[in-house]
Amino acid sequence: AQKVTQAQTEISVVEKEDVTLDCVYETRDTTYYLFWYKQPPSGELVFLIRRNSFDEQNEISGRYSWNFQKSTSSFNFTITASQVVDSAVYFCALSEDSNSGYALNFGKGTSLLVTP
Amino acid sequence: DADVTQTPRNRITKTGKRIMLECSQTKGHDRMYWYRQDPGLGLQLIYYSFDVKDINKGEISDGYSVSRQAQAKFSLSLESAIPNQTALYFCATSDKGVTTDTQYFGPGTRLTVL
Predict the structure, then answer these.
(1) DSSP per position, A61-89
(2) A97 to chain B: which residues are within 8 Å by CB?
(3) Which of B33, B48, B99 lies closest to A97 in CB terms?
(4) Which residue in A73, A52, A23, A5 sits closest to B100, CA to CA?
(5) Does the CA dihedral A49-A100-B104-B97 come out positive or negative?
(6) Which residues in B lie closer than 8 A to residue A44 (C-beta atoms)?
(7) What is the least distance, in Å, from the CA of B109 to any CA of chain A?
(8) A115 Cβ partners below 8 Å, 6+ apart?
């Protein structure tokens, strides 16, 4: 079963618009970790943020912000005033303490296109 | 220089051929992982290693094998490549010492099996 769901397959916005990428996860663990990665057209995976299950504080980093809500099992990512360079595929991922390999369970990704 | 490197970056091979993908890291991390990415499917774990003597299968290990030659090197082999192994392969590393630490990815190897 898919543990991380990114329901939005593709999003297209015009530069300077705000955009929110949704991530819903499923776990029975009380201790777990959530991540966001960015994959630009060049193909590499760039780490953006890590959040543990005990820290529900929202985080802001420049134009990026993350909203973690355990009540709805969501970890959404908002880009404010989007730019063309934000065009990429964004992955949400889950790591569970019960998973002995601590491997990341990835969602299928959301492809974001920002046009001028 | 990149912390996690993968060679080759691109490879085209034929069905039945043996191929090895290599990963090296200078981050000093103990844990290393191999994932494959197929279009629209996210990444799936092939193998992972916590140290040189500790290697474990991931969710899609069939058709693959690995070798941890040193703390810094982790190789993935396809003994007899088949077309549905055409994918983008990523190596990742993370630090030991905490239950889960951030995984840092190499640039990827694009493999095509004809």
Answers:
(1) ETTEEEEEEGGGTEEEEEESS--GGG-EE
(2) 99-100
(3) B99
(4) A52
(5) positive
(6) 105-108
(7) 10
(8) A12, A13, A14, A15, A84
How does pLDDT run across B6-40, given as a tens digit for each residue? 999 999 999 999 999 999 999 888 899 999 999 87
Stretch 54-83 of chain A: residues touching chain B, C-beta under 8 Å: none
Distance from C-alpha of A50 to C-alpha of B64, rounded to nearest angstrom: 30
Per-residue pLDDT of chain A (116 residues; tens, 9 = 90+): 679 999 999 999 999 999 999 999 999 988 899 999 999 999 999 999 989 898 888 888 899 999 999 999 999 999 999 999 999 999 999 998 766 667 889 999 999 999 99
Q: Does A109 contact chain B (CB < 8 Å)? A: yes
CA A39/CA A108 separation, integer angstroms: 12
For residues B47 and A51, what is the distance between their CA atoms, to the nearest angstrom? 24
pLDDT at A57: 82
Residues in chain A closer than 8 A to B99 (CB atoms): 31, 97, 102
The answer to whether B31 touches B93, Cβ cutoff 8 Å, is: yes
pLDDT of residue B107: 94
Provide, for chain A, the percentages of residues in helix, strand and coil under a 3-state DSSP scheme, each rounded to the nearest 5. 5, 50, 45
Residue B42 pLDDT: 83
CA B112, CA B14: separation in Å to the nearest integer?
Answer: 8
Phi first, then psi: what are they for A86, rounded to 5°? -80, -10
Q: Which residues are within 8 A (CB) of A103 and not within 5 positions of it... i.e. 6 or more apart?
A: A95, B33, B45, B48, B58, B59
Radius of gyration over alpha carbons of chain A, in Å? 14
